[in-house]
């Protein structure tokens, strides 16, 4: 009778269940961190593209527009705390005449090495494009 009572005793079963569930909970937590990091970084890169295109539309020449967009993107990424393994800022400025549309595409390769437990690749490329119109009423400088 005592043997049957020992087999039916469920003391310690909560610890065994916790030992089985804990690794899954850690993986779920890491997955949430991954999703949050990628979503937050994508939003920040969209903001960087917006800032870069506004800087490009203030330039007078396509070369100045490209330089201004790159400098603004680098500064905005630094201020946002984003470190890109590789940064690409492409500017489609046309001739920069008033009323023309300028488009800037920012691409950033973000490292994910600290989340390799999930089996995600070591990096992910996030990009965003933004367009803006060159001010119709801007004055001409010599």
UniProtKB/TrEMBL annotation:
It holds the Pfam family TadE. The keyword Membrane applies. Residues 12-54 form the TadE-like domain. The keyword Membrane applies. Keywords: Membrane, Transmembrane, Transmembrane helix. The chain crosses the membrane at residues 12-34. This is TadE/TadG family type IV pilus assembly protein. It comes from Lentzea rhizosphaerae. The lineage of its organism: Bacteria, Bacillati, Actinomycetota, Actinomycetes, Pseudonocardiales.
